[in-house]
Amino acid sequence: MEQAQPPRRGTSAYAARRTAWILVALAFVSINLRPAITTIAGTMGQLQAGFGLDAHLLPLLGALPVLAFGVSAPCGPWLARRLGTGRAVAAALLTLAAALLVRVLVPGLLLPGTFLAGASIMTASVLVPQIVKANRGTGWWTGLCTMGFGLGAALGAGLVQPLQQGLGGSLAWALAVWAVPALLGAALIHRTGQPAGRPDGTGETETGGPTSGAGLQKTTTAGGATGETGTIPLRKQRTAWAVTAFFGLQAMLYFAITSWLAVFLVSKGQTVADAAGLLAWFSVAGLPASLLAPVLAGRRAVLKVMAPGLGLLVAAALIGVLTAPVALQFLMVGVLGIVQSAGFGLGMALVVIRSTGPQSAGSLSAMSQGLGFALASLGPLGAGFLHEWSGGWDVPFWALAAEAVLLAVAGFLAVRGPAVSVEAVETEHRGEPAAVGR
């Protein structure tokens, strides 16, 4: 009698289990990539007394994570080439857990610990689209991740005060406890970053040849001729710049809005408590949009309208918040939250949709998020300067609306033209380069 054979790795049951595991791991990773920031924002008024931080350093503390985002974006692809994508994300989350602990438990390390936390977050964040692309994830995958970002931000802001009360009033431990989910995320994502059967991190090109990230390799053309392959730098690919501009502009709008919306609402007659509640509503209202936008973007016809259209909707929502009476602010802030979160979801989806393979997605993610967040750091500063210069809120809001129009232009350009590719591109002996990303 023949012995029963164990199920092979290629069976549908194995594939389904592996897919479910990767989705859970990605969701858990995404949720971990915002609480380090929003917990500090939610306790900003207590940091002076709790950690002896000079009041003049509070704005610097708020800007450090965004600054770290821009500086550390190239670390993700670099680490992935050496460890594999899943292990690189796990390493970033372990570093994040360490940063969350030392910044509040070791005297004098609040500022450098926050910078390290931001760098760890960006290292993991830029690799999420690469994992999605490597596993041929759909728009639902990207939507799940973007919703995880928003959910993590809301959990960090909403739970830090109850945690402090539950931990005997200790602010340090209420902030340090977020290292625990970071450790769990590292355990879940370990070894899940590569497609099944490719533990070495290599993948398959669209023509079926293996790529390992090397700059050149041998290929065979349809006619049997052998040629070399090369790459076109990202800086010379216009679609890469359009995607980067879209991501940077939507992030710039987000940070400007979240920094000043509550202050604006108080100036319109809201109480401090109501303004804080509306700021939280801004995030919560956008959660479904951050999930659905990448799904809808998977339809080419929808994407061509959505990419420029969202910028125009953000501009209209900003003017609506500026001009609406107090009684309508709940509605208008909710609309602004929906379209703004949809913009973030689309920004993440464009990295996956407009790249040709996992390596291209990782490189485009590093470029768009690195330069994008560097640009985003100017949002709160610019809006604050315009408010001080003009003595009111009309000029800042109209300037942000004009920026949203530029977002529409960037979206229009991002969905047209060739896809972004840094994978090896076939070149025949006669010297004619193959088309990139067609």
UniProtKB/TrEMBL annotation:
The chain crosses the membrane at residues 20-37, 57-76, 88-106, 112-132, 139-159, 171-189, 240-266, 278-298, 305-324, 330-352, 364-383, 395-415. Gene3D superfamilies: MFS general substrate transporter like domains. Residues 197-229 have a biased composition (Low complexity). InterPro entries: MFS, MFS_Cyanate_Porter, MFS_trans_sf. Keywords: Membrane, Transmembrane, Transmembrane helix. One of its GO terms (molecular function) is transmembrane transporter activity. SUPFAM superfamilies: MFS general substrate transporter. Residues 195-229 are annotated as: Disordered. This is CP family cyanate transporter-like MFS transporter.
